[in-house]
């Protein structure tokens, strides 16, 4: 049921994906590996490779229903959003390849704990994804200079406007206060003899 959900969510149209993903063993689905060790229980999917399939959107919660999954390869797709924390809580999962997607935000702390438990997560090629605690600090490193620059420009513009208005007002006052330097008509026509 989990694979059918994943198939429906991402619109996967793979010819071999018909019937049961693992049974019969000779007709198992492409890009899937199953465990056939215990014949008393049905085979379980242990590896899923959906790399380079053009998948888009967020990483769906349906993956967590693959309870025996050991390896998940979702590399070279167009996944967006954050890396879901549920991937780290999947007990059997030991390898997750999320390289070359468009994932964003900080990596959940549970992945840092998971690395100590043998979980190998690869996330290269996701420039908007931050793998450590410096994410918030890095965002602040951009915000402070931008705000300071904008504030500086606004202050400079305000000072220039104030100076121009003050000079114009001052020039108008000086013109009204000073007597005219041009001789009046009467003094020009008057002759002294």
UniProtKB/TrEMBL annotation:
Transmembrane segments: 142-166
GO molecular function, one term: kinase activity
Keyword Kinase: yes
Subcellular localization: Membrane
Pfam family, one: LRR_8
Keywords (A to Z) from UniProt: Kinase, Leucine-rich repeat, Membrane, Receptor, Repeat, Signal, Transferase, Transmembrane, Transmembrane helix
Keyword Metal-binding attached: no
InterPro entries given in the database record: Leu-rich_rpt (IPR001611), LRR_dom_sf (IPR032675)
GO CC annotation, single: membrane
Membrane topology: Single-pass membrane protein
Protein name: Putative LRR receptor-like serine/threonine-protein kinase
């Amino acid at each position: 049921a989990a694979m059918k959900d994943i198939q429906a969510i991402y619109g996967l149209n793979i010819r071999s994906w018909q019937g049961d993903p693992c049974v019969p063993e000779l007709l198992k689905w492409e890009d899937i590996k199953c465990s056939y060790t215990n014949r008393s229980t049905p085979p379980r999917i242990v590896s899923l490779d959906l790399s380079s399939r053009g998948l888009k959107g967020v990483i769906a919660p349906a993956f967590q229903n693959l309870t025996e999954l050991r390896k998940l390869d979702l590399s070279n797709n167009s996944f967006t959003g954050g890396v879901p924390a549920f991937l780290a809580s999947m007990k059997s999962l030991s390898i997750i390849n999320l390289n070359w997607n468009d994932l964003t935000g900080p990596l959940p702390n549970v992945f840092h704990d998971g690395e100590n438990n043998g979980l190998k997560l690869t996330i290269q090629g996701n420039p908007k994804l931050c793998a450590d605690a410096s994410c918030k600090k890095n965002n602040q490193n951009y915000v402070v200079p931008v705000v300071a620059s904008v504030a500086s420009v606004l202050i400079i513009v305000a000072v220039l406007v104030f100076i121009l208005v003050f000079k114009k007002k001052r020039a108008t006052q000086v013109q009204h206060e000073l007597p005219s330097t041009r001789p009046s008509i009467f003094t020009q026509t008057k002759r002294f003899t």
